[in-house]
Known about the structure:
The structure holds 2 protein chains of 2 kinds. Chain A is an alpha+beta fold. Chain A has 3 domains: about 20-195, no CATH class; about 260-340, Helix Hairpins (Orthogonal Bundle); about 350-500, 2-Layer Sandwich (Heat Shock Protein 90). Chain A is built from 10 helices and 13 strands. Chain A has helices spanning about 5-65, 145-165, 190-240, 260-305, 310-340, 355-365, 365-370, 390-410, 440-445, 465-475; strands at about 70, 85-90, 95-100, 120-130, 135-145, 185-190, 350-355, 375-380, 385-390, 415-420, 425-435, 480-485, 490-500. In chain A, the strands form 3 sheets. Chain A has a 6-stranded mixed β-sheet. In chain A, strands 8-10-11-13-12 form a 5-stranded mixed β-sheet. In chain A, strand 4 and strand 5 (about 135-145) form a beta hairpin. In chain A, helix 1 crosses helix 2 (about 145-165). The radius of gyration of chain A is 56 Å and the shape is rod-shaped. The model of chain A is unreliable at about 160-170, about 345-350 and about 455-465 (pLDDT under 50). Chain B is α/β, with parallel strands linked by helices. Chain B folds into 2 domains: about 1-120, 3-Layer(aba) Sandwich (Rossmann fold); about 125-220, Arc Repressor Mutant, subunit A, CATH 1.10.10.10. Chain B has 8 helices and 12 strands. In chain B, strands 2-1-3-4-5 form a 5-stranded parallel β-sheet, with helices on both faces. Chain B has a 4-stranded antiparallel β-sheet with strand order 6-7-8-9, covered by helices on one side. A 3-stranded antiparallel β-sheet of chain B has the order 10-12-11. In chain B, a hairpin with a 2-residue loop joins strand 6 (about 125-130) and strand 7 (about 130-135). In chain B, helix 6 (about 150-165) packs across helix 8 (about 190-200). The two termini of chain B are about 25 Å apart. The interface of A and B includes residues 294, 307 and 324 of A.
Amino acid sequence: MAASSIQRRVVVSATVAMTATILGSGGLIFEAYRSGARSDGENSLTSIIELGAERAVAESIFATRAGNASVPPERAGPLSQYAWICWRAGEAEELCRSTGFPPVKVPLVESREAGEEGAATGLQFAEIVGEDGRHYRIATASFVPRLRGLASLRRGEGRASRRDRDRRAPRPSEPPFLPGDQFLVLAMAPMQEEFERSAELARLMLIGGAGALLAATLLIRSSVRRGMAPLGTLTRTIEGIGEGNLDESVHLAGAPIELTPIVDALERSRVQLAQSFAREQRFTDDIAHELRTPLAGLRAALEVALRRKRSPEELEEVLTNNLSAALDLQQIVDSLLLLRRSGAASEDAQGVNLREEMGRAFEELGEALEARSLTVAFHAEAGAPHLGLGAPAVVRRITTNLARNAVDHADVGSTISVTTRADSEFATLIVENPSEGIRQEAADRAFEPFWQADQARSAGDQHVGLGLAIVEGCASALGGRAAVATVDGTFRITIELPLA
Amino acid sequence: MRILVVEDYGPLRGPVVTALRDEGWTVDVAGDGDTALQAIAGQERDLVILDLMIPGVDGLNVLKRTRATGDMVHILVMTARDSVEDRVRALDAGADDYLVKPFAIEELIARTRALLRRKFQVKSPTIRVGPLVVSTADRVVKMDDRVVDLTAREYALLEYFAHRSNEIVTRSEAHLSLYGEQTQASSNVVDVYVGYLRKKLEAAGEPRVLHTRRGQGYILTAPDQP
């Protein structure tokens, strides 16, 4: 899937789930209905057999005797609305059937245990398909007529004989049945109506289900769309964020909780971006300011020289002045490049002795140390030389900048303390110098490029406030870290470099 | 005119001082805030050109402390910081003008002249005293229509008298404006230069404009109101 849409996914899976639910529950409902309908049909057949079996048996016997093969509905009593067949138990030939019995091959009806007199027993049900293709429900039962029924039969026989006396065969002498004679009765009802009702139900359910599905799909679509709408607002908010517009916080009124982590993450990124842009901005401003003073010197010297005729000595002075300014510019640019480059880790990593490097760095500043009457005290904790793993050139940048910073800012006549130690992971270098009146702010801002504790260039030296920023850049380039603390008028820088 | 330049960066301070001295003004320098405060407190100056980024007490605090003592000296701030907030902060701290580095030396001098005029409550760059016309912008001096050729030092002294025209200038004030605190110059050097000036101004028989007030000093004023 090249571009997947949450909305489409939700709608598709919800539709599938809904369809399965509707089909499943629809099937269950339909089955329940069908079984209810079957039991209704069976119940009505049962009661009709129970009510009409005796009459059917009697009419069958009577019709047989009269030589008729069927009993018309008007004579069938309770069974008048049904098709039915009557057997004498144990005989294969049927005794009689109702007039107009549909063209259905009736299955063989077996005898079954006889019950009480006058009661239809051993009811069995079946569904069969007729030769006309119609479905029928049949019920079969055994029936033992009551003796009392004989009288009614005779009355019936009497009524019939009065009406059809001439057409009738002579009355046989044997009784129509003996007490305990068993008959089998089959009653049959078409299932057409039941089927139609089922079909109607199924159609209703399909229409209802499809409607529900459609409605649910639309609802889900719209609610997903509504749920996703804040994303549009969010997108516009994010699009509005740019270099010049990082101050507006990313927030989303009415955002669903699923989006909250995204919004929060974006807000955090924005804050970081804003801070980093602000830092960059300050850095660029600072560069501009630092470059301005030597540039002002260059320009002023040249303009002043050109205002009138100057002697060779005066011109030489101008040249010296401008060389000095140019060197200052170069120093600033070099420091900036170094700061930028120290961001990239060096490849020629090898062991460096921090103690020796610090010693060398202070040696190079011997004159400045002497001029400010400073002494350096080394504290190396017992053990082998302390090796910080790192590119020697990068480590040297750290040590020379630390030494220069300490020499420039230590109180006159004080002692600079250098401590080196190592544990299993890190080589640690701590440089401390007393610095009267140093403020906490110094620790917080020491690593900012161009920041200086006295907010001004120290007289006579070249550095421009990049030293500690370079130290930090170099330390992190080597995988280490730098920290600054001011404690009781002492400025302390701690450098940790990884040993492996 | 006595100007104090407070700037710690040598390669800039040198040319600025040279340019100001070329104008005939007396220039003293300070390389840090503390020296600057001492210099301002010690001597009366006509102008202080102050860099904000200086060691010791920073420029902004020099400004504030100077103003806190009630000192009315004109202060021109010269700094690398150019944001609106920086300018507003400096002006609100009591600066009279603001110049961003790097600048054209001509602009520094023009602003300096403007501040000096303001110091002496002179609006016009051209000062007239009787037949004398001192055009401070192009440093041309005329008696009526006759151009008077002066050396830098003579001009500087005349300009100082012109700025304070119609009031008495003591010999020591004139001396300070010429030489600052340099003490090598002999004490009668002012009298010598006044002599030269009178000679050149009256070369075509013009009436005297630079008068001596015995026991008090000198006064530059129109000839008919001695």
